[in-house]
Inverse folding.
């Protein structure tokens, strides 16, 4: 299995604190040594740092931990390979264009029978069930909505229906973003938290690292974080029920 | 205008030396301060580092200069914006999937009338003439070859025909790669060099940095580098004539 990390914020916010926890699980406090990746949106653009090396020892992961890249939408993943070799083309997140937007996807779980899913114009590059599922999802979206639908609520409900279908084939925890929205679909384990004023302090579960969010934020900041398991030991994380999803936009929960 | 840098090699090779020159032109020895990017292939996978900040001062560019990422196919670009704002979505290289492969594109030049080019299923995300031209090119490829053609020579001749058509709309110097082939199409300025045994020494034009390739290579290595302007002052670079292209695979020139 793998671990997921996502963020949605109303002002560009760095994710160094949370990524530190995730990166440690990539081969040190966790077994997810088979690569890692993180995608930061800035406007309609996005950039992905990824490495098939374990995140706890990757020089690129160190840059991401230490250099605060600020973003309103982030999707990240550390991998423990099941389907597909340890290689760059099998390293999440995956990004593809739909309706002139970059869509970014990361998956935790394992699917059966995924090779029979039609993917239309979206051809997988690597060998993972995850990228296959992503291509199928985009193909379904593009068939259902040749142009971008007006209602985001309707769009993400349709995506959740597609995710329900994938969940019938195995375990399918997913993070998905188009740079504005960050969606978390839960099959087994996903948690989230929204931080807003008055900000407090928090301590990582994985290492004796604490942060005082008050010192890092302004009173208007709203920042939601999604993770497979809670990343801090002194805050109240919400569990997403299996088969449910949460949707964030600019830090606020939409659904 | 912008500067391009590409590499094709028969063994995974780092590009730190050449990228150092390019990065300096990004705001210090050259005016290309409006962002930079570099794509490294590893197998069918690729990863891109990009930043809308000037490359000479970007912490991410410093990582790329100092951390040797080894690859057999690299495409890089430093930008001086003309069409499209300075933003991440307008920062080259651009990567899209075709036939289950990642295609990566970078452009130096400026095109007129590009908004009338049909792009089919490839919708631009940003506002540059460059990404528009790339989307049109992929659309043309996918129309002409619904599945990947067997002959790479034929494929790249067709791509060159498309590039000829773009050159009629302005200046169109291009680097294009699918991870195996690296193609350089020249509209005004592009140079290349192939290094092989016996390897010698070389000194950068832009800074007093020298390298002894003999110490960095094995006798079987073949490495070709493509750049807008020669990067070293003591080697013989070949100029590509306007309207011509060169194609490399695993370091060796194919056409």
């Amino acid at each position: 299995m793998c671990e997921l990390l996502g963020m949605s914020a109303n002002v560009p916010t760095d994710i160094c604190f949370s990524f530190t926890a995730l990166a440690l699980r990539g081969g040190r406090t966790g077994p997810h040594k088979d690569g890692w990746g993180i995608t930061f949106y800035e406007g309609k653009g996005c950039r992905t740092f990824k490495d098939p090396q374990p995140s706890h020892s990757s020089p690129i992961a160190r840059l991401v931990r230490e250099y605060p890249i600020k973003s309103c939408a982030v999707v990240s993943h550390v991998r423990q390979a099941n389907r597909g070799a340890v290689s760059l083309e099998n390293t999440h997140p995956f990004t593809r264009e739909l309706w002139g937007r970059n869509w970014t996807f990361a998956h935790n779980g394992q699917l059966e029978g995924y090779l029979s899913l039609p993917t239309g114009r979206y051809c997988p590059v690597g060998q993972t069930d995850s990228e296959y599922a992503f291509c199928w999802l985009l193909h379904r979206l593009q068939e259902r909505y040749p142009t971008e639908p007006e209602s985001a609520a309707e769009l993400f409900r349709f995506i959740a229906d597609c995710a329900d279908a994938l969940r019938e084939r195995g375990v399918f925890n997913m993070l998905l973003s188009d740079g504005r929205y960050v969606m978390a679909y839960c099959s087994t384990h996903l948690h989230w938290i929204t931080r807003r004023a008055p900000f407090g302090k928090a301590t990582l579960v994985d290492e004796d690292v604490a942060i005082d969010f008050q010192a890092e934020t302004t009173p208007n900041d709203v920042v939601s974080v999604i993770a497979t398991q809670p990343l801090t030991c002194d805050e109240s994380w919400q569990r997403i029920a299996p088969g449910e999803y949460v949707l964030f936009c600019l830090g606020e929960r939409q659904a």
